[in-house]
Amino acid sequence: MSSVTLVNSLSGLLILTSLLVIEVKQSRMSAIMYSIQSVVLVLIFLALAYITGAEQLYWWAASAFVTKVILVPLLLYRALSQAAEAEMPRNALGPTLSFVMAAIAVAVSFVVINQIQLKAAVPFKPALAVSMAHFFFGELCILTQRNLFKQVLGFCLMENGSHLTLALLAYNAPELVEIGIATDAVFGVIIMIVLGNQIYKTLHTLDTGKLNTLKG
Amino acid sequence: METNYLTWLLLIPLILSLAAFAARWLKGFTRPVVEAAHLLSITLVLLMSLLAVRDVAASGQILSPGHWLHVDALSAIFLLIIGVVGFLAGLYTLSYTRHDLESGEFDLNRLSLYYGLFSLFLFTMLLVVTANNIIMMWVAVEATTLGSAFLVGIYGHHSSLEAAWKYVIICTVGVAFGLYGTILVYSDAVNVMQTPGTAVLWTEIVKNAKALDPSLLKMAFVFVLVGFGTKAGLFPMHAWLPDAHSEAPSPVSALLSGVLLNCALLVIFRFGIITDLVVGPAFTHTLFLIFGIVSVAAAAFFMFVQRDIKRLLAYSSMENIGLVVLAFGLGGPFAGLLHALNHSLVKALMFLTTGNILIKYRSRSLDQIKGMLQAIPVTSVLLFVGAIALVGTPPFNIFVSKFLIVASGLAAGYVWLMLLSLLLLSVVFAAFFKVISSTLFGEKPDGIAKGEYGWLTLAPAAVLIILILVLGLTIPPQLNSLLNQAAKLVSTNLVNSNLGGTSFAQTNSAGLLPGLAEVKAWLTPLVSWLP
To answer: Given this model, what pLDDT does residue A86 score?
Structure first.
């Protein structure tokens, strides 16, 4: 298997792990599935670093390992553990519908990415389409989940999608740029978790359906 | 022109924000320390912003060493807004938070958190308007959400936490679209320029824009418009806006409505300039026209049925941001930028006035706010002047910019669209007429004592009234020159690429494009009094 094929195949695994993040029955397991997905992302960064010879991608892989494989999943696991499983609001979509939506997202992204003429993007078009699909899938997760912290996971999925796009198209960006994006994303998740915890302590629910006092 | 003080412009509010956070441990001194840090922060930001605007007016643009920070005429206008509105809202907040301390809404820890976040919020907005690195621009926009989310939820009530959650989740997701668009533009630029270090700079991308891939740029701009349009409160991505703007403390609402929405717009316009250079203006203008008019229409009807005064003002912000975007779609960036500035001042005035109403009535409901002329007569006058200014009554500033937007539309041949806009603006007028008639007159409720809270709750609003009146009567030559420079930045490429479109800058200085002579003849007597 060539390195390029490896990158494209690993990207496919991202969609599979996303489905697991969304559909796994125990809420706190979602955080573990997200951690597994981030391992796949780290492997893609390493493979890309090997192919392109871009040293900074090794740093990307290292920072993604610390933040996305360990830190964010740990915070989300703890956040999801504070409420009893029976109190957790359910996903509006079932597994079948989620699978269908994922397939549609991938198909649409393939059509869109096919129109891009960038030379650097040509070998990685499948991975690029998957990264875009992953981004949309994360958004779908936010729209369909009623659990506060699962919405945060949806954001994490979106962020993994855009992070992969960045790695495929702009791996040679100045390091400070990657640091800025990664820091912002981690801070974003931390702030959402702090706010979610505050909501749970004040309102005793993780159900966004109950956040409905502001209307009109 | 290269300068070091742009870095200090950012560092000062950041350092003073950390000082305010740390002041919570200075028991007994917390309040004087945070207030001193806050005053220093807003004053220095105002002075340095004015300094930067002056230098831009003199030399066209200023850059930091390394060119990661950049202020040109376009961003100078937004920097001016941050400096002025940030200072006046910041001044007002001193008395507002003292009231919150007295009423038990705040303790000293929360006060320190509030002031720390206030300066942090200013820092993030300054970073948005000064960033030349397009990816740092995104980082800054995202940071504005993270910096202000806790300000929205600072009271910790059910409704404020709900608003903060919606704000964070909708804006973070929205701005993620912006990141996607930014990455696409950067990757295309690096493909063309082959130098990653410079391909990330907006000033360099503009220079090389003609070589970029048109289909990629179109896709990227859609992502950018949806992403940063969410932050700007454009319909239909506006869902967070009425909640966050109404639940935040009033001085923060003034910053959110008067400043933050504009910062997001600036980023859209920056990418719009690049896109126009690559694919011509028709693409962005069409999108601007659609999002602009739909936002105005939706906001007008939401305002008409609204019974919560702060939500009504939040929808009014959506309406005015829609007008700014519409102006850009019509090819009238001069009118659009002037309207952005005018709206910021008037909306800050309105939110500060609403703060006084909240202090007195402890309610935002129009059903409970009655007899203001008896209870708080000075605030009543401020609210009245703000409302008539906001709907576009002469001699106030918004009349001028709304007039110029309509004039730009007519000059560009969008007669029906302008008629529709005027119809929608009459709905807005009716909504504010209801507010004035319902709140100012009648008997004040029992238990509401007569009297204002203090001069510091009135002085910043009074300064704002002077500014909106002055800008209604004349546009100072320096500001006019800055607006013309900014309008040229946006529309130079249209002239160069011969793809049509007009701006008021062009109508004002170089004449209308061929084929619009009759409209020009009709408009000339109407606009001749302008500087």
So the answer is: 63
DSSP track, B302-327: HHHT--BHHHHHHHHHHHHHHHHHHH
What is the three-class DSSP state of B365? strand
Contacts of A167 in chain B (CB under 8 A): none
Chain A environment of B153 (Cβ under 8 Å) = 195, 198
Amino acid letter at B60? Answer: G
User: For residue range A13-64, what is the model confidence (pLDDT) as tens digits?
Assistant: 988 898 888 888 788 899 999 999 999 999 999 999 998 888 888 988 998 9
Q: What span, in angstroms and rounded, lies between the C-alpha atoms of B426 and B414?
A: 18
Whether B150 and A196 lie within 8 Å, measured CB to CB: no
At B417-464, the pLDDT tens digits run: 999 999 999 999 999 999 999 999 988 898 888 999 989 999 999 999
Does residue B240 belong to the interface with chain A, where contact is any CB pair within 8 Å? no
Signed CA dihedral, B159, B163, B166, B168: sign only:
negative
- In angstroms, rounded to a whole number, what is the distance separating the alpha carbons of residues B341 and B337? 6
Q: How many structural domains does chain B have?
A: 1
Tokens 């605030």, residue? Answer: B379
SS3 B2: strand
- Is A179 near chain B, with CB under 8 Å? no
Distance, CA of B379 to CA of B360 (rounded, Å): 10
Which one-letter amino acid corresponds to residue B48? M
Give a yes or no: residue B376 inside a domain.
Answer: yes
How does residue B507 score in pLDDT terms, banded at 50, 70 and 90?
Answer: very low
Give the span between the Cα atoms of A148 and A87, in whole angstroms: 12
> Tell me: the pLDDT tens digits for B101-131?
999 999 999 999 999 999 999 999 999 999 9
Looking at residue B353, what is its pLDDT?
97
Q: State the average pLDDT over residues B388-403.
A: 96
Q: What is the pTM of this model?
A: 0.91
pLDDT in the model for residue A91 = 67
Q: In terms of Cα–Cα distance, which of B241, B247, B254, B434 is closest to B353?
A: B254
Contact of B66 with B130, CB cutoff 8 Å: no
In a domain, B137, yes or no: no
Q: Taking CB atoms and an 8 Å cutoff, what residues of chain B touch A212?
A: 162
Q: DSSP string covering B94-113, please?
A: HHHHHHHHHHTS--HHHHHH
Provide the pLDDT for residue B511: 35
B168–chain A Cβ distance below 8 A for any pair: yes
Mean pLDDT, rounded, for B201-218: 92
Q: Using the beta-carbon criterion (under 8 Å), do A195 and B243 form an inter-chain contact?
A: no
Q: Please tell me the least confidently modeled range out of A146-155, B45-54, B113-122, B319-328.
A: A146-155
A10 forms beta bridges with none
Tokens of B173: 């997701």
A216 contacts in chain B (CB < 8 Å): 242, 302, 305-306, 308, 311
Enumerate the residues of chain A whose CB falls inside 8 A of the CB of residue B242.
Answer: 214, 216
DSSP secondary structure code for residue B257 in this structure: I
Q: B304 lies in a domain?
A: no
Q: Do A196 and B165 make contact, defined as CB atoms within 8 angstroms? A: yes
B481 lies in which domain range?
329-531
Beta-carbon contacts of B413 under 8 Å, excluding residues fewer than 6 positions away, are B516, B519
Positive or negative: CA dihedral B351, B352, B356, B358: positive
In this structure, how many other beta carbons lie within 10 angstroms of the beta carbon of residue B237?
A: 23
Torsion on CA atoms B84, B89, B93, B94, rounded to nearest 10? 30
